[in-house]
Amino acid sequence: MPDRRGSGMNAENRGHADSADQCVADAAAELGELLRRTGFTAAHVVGVSWGGKLAISLAARHPGQVAGISLVAPGLFPKIDLTASEKFSVAVSLVRGRDRLFDIPINAPRMFTSNPRWLAYLERDKLQLRQVTACFLLASRQLDRIVKRFRLSAWSGGVHLMLAGRDQIVNNHRTRTWFDALPWPDRRLTEYPNAEHTIEFEDNAAEFIRDLGEWIVARTPNRADGGYGE
User: CB 169: neighbour CB atoms within 10 A?
Assistant: First the structure.
């Protein structure tokens, strides 16, 4: 999984992105490289948390290269947002200083998991991103608009939505409503009632991994039939 620009192992311009177009272009370049190396014509994309916005935007902008999407606790409709005063400060910064950093409102490790092992991992993670620029926040809002228009796009693959019942970050009700309105028949909703936001941190994560893999494999023709992998 490649690290997003300004995050993970990328040390330059931490927490920054110029625009939604840049975010999608980066993802498209990474997908294009994957397809070039494998010889496939399309790939299945998994979007986790905030990455759900990016996975959907990638499918909307490059429909022929995305065979299907799995959305894992996607951050399409978060419960937590910036305050009104913070949003005003962001708006001012977009005029006077687009690189100004703002705290990410979702920072506490316990928002992601209560598993002691993974709490300890998050608390000592030196690569964790805690701030983003005003420009990145604008790019994220731009991706939100793509998500809202997604059902009108030319893409028509399968969508697997995977939700955590005890998610403190994602508004599951709004996410289900959005999902139910998608016009494509190949859809599946899988819920884990006792799971928290980072489903793969659960003690029974093997169930989640199996469900994720089985859905993808069942919709993946071999090279002779469909040309996009096994």
Answer: 19
* CATH among 3.40.50.1820, 3.40.570.10, 3.40.190.10, 3.30.830.10 for 20-217: 3.40.50.1820
CA 142 – CA 158 distance, rounded (Å): 24
Kindly state the average pLDDT of the residues 144-153: 94
Radius of gyration of the chain (CA): 18
With beta carbons less than 8 A apart as the criterion, state whether 30 and 4 touch: no
pLDDT tens column, 55-87: 999 999 999 999 999 999 999 999 998 888 988
User: Per the structure block, which two tokens stand in for 168?
Assistant: 């403190």
Is the alpha carbon torsion for 74, 76, 80, 86 positive or negative? Answer: positive
Query: For residues 201 and 47, what is the distance between their CA atoms, to the nearest angstrom?
Result: 16
Contacts 24+ apart (CB under 8 A), 188-194: 188/158, 188/159, 188/160, 188/161, 188/215, 189/161, 189/163, 190/160, 190/161, 190/162, 190/163, 190/215, 191/162, 191/163, 191/164, 191/165, 192/162, 192/163, 192/164, 192/165, 193/165, 193/166, 194/165, 194/166
Domain extent listing, the chain? 20-217
Size (the chain), residues = 230
Q: Can you read off the two tokens belonging to residue 158? A: 């399968």
Name the pTM for this structure: 0.92
The span from the CA of 87 to the CA of 102, in Å, is 10
Coil, helix or strand at residue 229: coil
Beta strand 187-192 with 131-133: parallel, antiparallel or unpaired? Answer: unpaired
- Say if residues 7 and 50 touch (Cβ distance below 8 Å): no
